[in-house]
Amino acid sequence: RCGRAAEAAVYFSIAEALTNAAKHSRATSCRVHVRVREEGVLWARVEDDGLGGARVVPGGGLDGIVNRVTAAGGTARIDSPQGGPTTVEVSVPCAS
Questions:
Q1: 11 alpha-carbon distance from chain centroid
Q2: Looking at the whole model, is its pTM more than 0.90?
């Protein structure tokens, strides 16, 4: 298993991405993928089929994902072009 900090950061990211999709995207479906990669990284990807256009704004949910993952030593990538879809991808070292 990965460390608690890594698991908590990835769990928070998934929960927040799903919450944002439910509240804002008008998505009809979401997919969640989670893996431990060979290099000892906990990786997750949340994809929705919504409208897109999500932005990282200070104090917002996506900002919270970025801050939580960065604090755990990881990286976050958010891709949300107008028209959709939105993808949130995070990678956190298992040792964190």
A1: 9
A2: yes
